[in-house]
Amino acid sequence: MTVPCVRVRPQAGEATRQALAERDLLAEAYDITVADGWLYLPVADADAVPAEYEVVPFDAERRQTHTLPADILGFEPSLERLGRIVVLDEDDDARAREIADAVMASDLPCDTVVNRASKVKGEYRVREWDVLAGNGTETVHTEYGTEFLLDIAEVYFSPRLATERHRVVEQVEADEHAFDMFAGVGPFAVPMAKRGTDVVACDLNPVAVEYLRGNAERNGVAERVTAREGDVREIATDYEGWADRVVANLPHSASAFADTAVALAGDDCVVHLYDIQHEDDPFAAGKRALREAAGEEYEVRTETERVVRSYAPHEVNVCLDARLVRR
């Protein structure tokens, strides 16, 4: 049957599927299909699909043999998939366990079901989990063709930011010097290195740094990624004036590290500064922090102001792309 489908290349398939699923746009009654080098993801409402995606008519097959959690439960649960882990965010323990049982009984490719048990907290920005089914919190997550091994109980990782990370990575050119100030397991650093860039990536969390090194090896770019454990303000002293690109992804706090980002910048450097601010004027704080840190040494040009996602009522997660040009 001909249905509207988002058409993407297969390497972008999982990230696109997640983005559409977050908006409840996937037409679950039809199969996701690969044809002629493209992946076709059936959607329930073509008009609601974000403009960044291409929507085309496609003859998709109805699903015949896949049993989904909704088929068992009688309602559509809210799920997030990270590799072979299914993540729930349920306040009711009984409902969470009912959903977990249905997920494990369904045909979803899943090894473990967890429920969020705390907010992100601590200097390593990790959260607690209730493991409802299965027995492991380590998984391999694929994002735009790059594999990441990680343990969600030990490191911070948000699959919801896949599209935003890809946007930044697509700007990277071969032979750049890129510095990832808060690298985690490498979702910025590793794909940037795959584009031929030399990357220095640091993180306070020693477990995250070990996964980062392993993920660079797993994706064949270990020679291009220098992984450093520790406070970026200290590590940056070894790389002053080195970077053509800086990623500062520590919402709520990144503006406090603007002086470090500027210290890393070479003569012409793009800084991707992430922040969480009130929706009325979400970019002002980041701009002000960069301009104050740059002083008279750099001209600061705003290239992109992007709202990444809603974070809380009247608060948004944003990215400011700013170019620093030495005067």
Automatic annotation (TrEMBL):
InterPro entries documented for this protein: MeTrfase_TRM5/TYW2, SAM-dependent_MTases_sf, TRM5-TYW2-like_MTfase, TRM5/TYW2-like_N, Trm5a/b_N
Sorted UniProt keywords: Cytoplasm, Methyltransferase, S-adenosyl-L-methionine, Transferase, tRNA processing
Zinc-finger recorded as keyword: no
Pfam families: TRM5-TYW2_MTfase, Trm5_N, TYW2_N_2
GO MF entry, a single one: methyltransferase activity
Keyword Methyltransferase: yes
TM region(s), chain numbering: none
Span of the signal peptide: none
SAM-dependent methyltransferase TRM5/TYW2-type domain location: 79-326
Tree of life domain: Archaea
GO terms of biological process kind: tRNA methylation
This protein's name: Class I SAM-dependent methyltransferase
